[in-house]
Write a structure and sequence with these properties.
- The complex is a heterodimer of chains A (407) and B (227).
- Chain A has 13 helices and 9 strands.
- With 407 residues, chain A is of the alpha+beta class.
- Chain A has a 6-stranded mixed barrel.
- In chain A, a hairpin with a 2-residue loop joins strand 2 and strand 3.
- In chain A, helix 1 packs across helix 10, helix 2 runs antiparallel to helix 12 and helix 3 runs antiparallel to helix 7.
- The two termini of chain A are 31 Å apart.
- Chain B has 227 residues and is an alpha/beta fold.
- Chain B contains 8 helices and 10 strands.
- Chain B starts with 6 loop residues before the first strand and ends with a strand.
- The chains are: A alpha+beta (407), B alpha/beta (227).
Chain lengths: 407, 227
Amino acid sequence: MKFGDIFFDLSMRSVRLNFTRSMLAAIGIVIGVVAISSMGMLGTNMQLEVKEQLSSSANTIVITPDSVRMGAPGTAPSSSSNSAVTKTQLTKITSVVGQNGTVIPIYTTSSQFTINSLPGRGMVYGLDPADIPEFLTLNNTYGQGTTNLGVNEVLVGSAIASNFGVTVGDRIKIGSVTASSRPQLRIAGILNPRGTVADGVSTDNAIVVNSKWYTNQYGGKDEYNQVNIIVKDTDNIPDIESAVDAKINTNAKSPAIRIRDAESLLATTTSTLGTVTTFIMAIGGISLVVAAVSIFNVMMMSVNERIQEIGILLSIGTERGEVRRMFLYEAFILGLLGATIGGICSLLIGYSVVDSMIGTTQYFFMFDSIVYVPLGMAIGIVVCIISGVYPAWKASNMDPIDALRSE
Amino acid sequence: MTETPLIQLVGVTKTYHLESGDFTALKDVSLDIPENDFVAIMGPSGSGKSTMMNQLGLLDIPTSGTLCISGKDVSRMSNLERTHMRRDLIGYIFQKFYLIPLLSAYENVEYPLILKYKKRDTSGKAAELLARVGIDAGMSSHRPTQLSGGQQQRVAIARALVNDPKILLCDEPTGNLDRKTGLQIMDILCTLHNEGRTVILVTHDPKIAEYATRTIRLDDGQIVEES
């Protein structure tokens, strides 16, 4: 496209002459670009948010009992007897880790609870009070708390604190709301939000209790649901993982424990989110197909209304390629118009959607996220140009004599 | 040694294949038109005048026979070569003016220059030609729909002349004009002929045909009289 190209001028004038019709056709492109860009940005912001949260626990190895085992294909599924990490296994893990990290055994269950007469449900984590400061922090805006939990004290997660209007010192009853009597514990602190984490301890909607209280209440002493290893140097993670695996999973066909870390969880999660993002973008892309039909229709109308003009152009020495270019410009202008409006709307709508659905826009203007705006615009323009190919071809291949006779 | 005529038709036949059967619009027409000739082509409706003009204007090619322009057999030329010849060698003036409605009078005249030189006109040639045919600067910014028939035809003549064509094809150029304006247009065409251009004119009007130095009568696709 050359600056001052008369064919571009002609196309611009044609669009201006039929401005309402052109704008209506371009609306389809606007919607398509907004759909693709917003969905792409939303998905990417989700991925970046999850990545950030997961990487905050990148120094943690999570060990869980390998309680469900599937048999080899064609054989009956077998279930291993490992429903918990045992004390012996914990001792082995501790000896393997040595001075390279901290081993944190964790009990988990889920339970109903009541705070300020309001019932709720959440995870209950049983931890040794000495381990809590290793990976959990307190939010003291609700009152000065402590992680040094007494047997009848708990910490509650940030979501519970805000939903139930908790302050430090409030009481919480843990257990089924229909139970005749339930233990009542003192809330000794409120935890900072953790979001999605890779270490398996999602405390936002959870209660952290003293492990002694946990085993008194639920039994299962020394049968841990999970063991976390917080390593000092993340470079040692593969070595520690293989050492633990070699020490405990002695039977390769029926391993006793599963070992994972943030990296493997991150890979799975981002891959899943990536697939979901692509899928929802494809759904957004359907609106572009509808827009393409609309642009095609407008372009065909433009060609049919200008048959005589095409005849004049051809009869006074315009090359067929130049006529084709003129109509492709027109499709491009429609696409550019729709894509520009769509791009601006994408920024506004995408920002609102990301803010409301993810809760933060800190990643919105990052390249990986914002790139969906020019990408969506480019797709919109390309769709328009493709829609204009047949009408342009039809115009350029007209017989000038027939075209001139047309009224 | 005789000089090769600017336009030479040898046994040109044009047959259209219609659903109702084949229709031959030109039958074995042979004609020489030398440079700086002024030829009027006359004949009743359906006699083949328009088909002849389409052939001479390179909008179509003969079904059989040979049409040579400037010594080149048009049937052997590619579509693009014919387009370039039409652009550079032929100026077409239509009965219905056929100006481009989206462009101003000035831009309509400038348009063939842009086609040829692939850039906007900076030589002032378009404005000069418009002035020559009696379109002032104020009118040259008007769109065709804002001009009278006579003004539109003047613009069309300026457009036809802007690339300095050797041949001017005029398809009933006064057909849509009143008598007085028609005569003014014919005066312009005579001046152009006197300047050395070859003018080929299709008309029904014997008074208009009198301006030509030679008249060819067509009937049923054949030349029946030449004077």
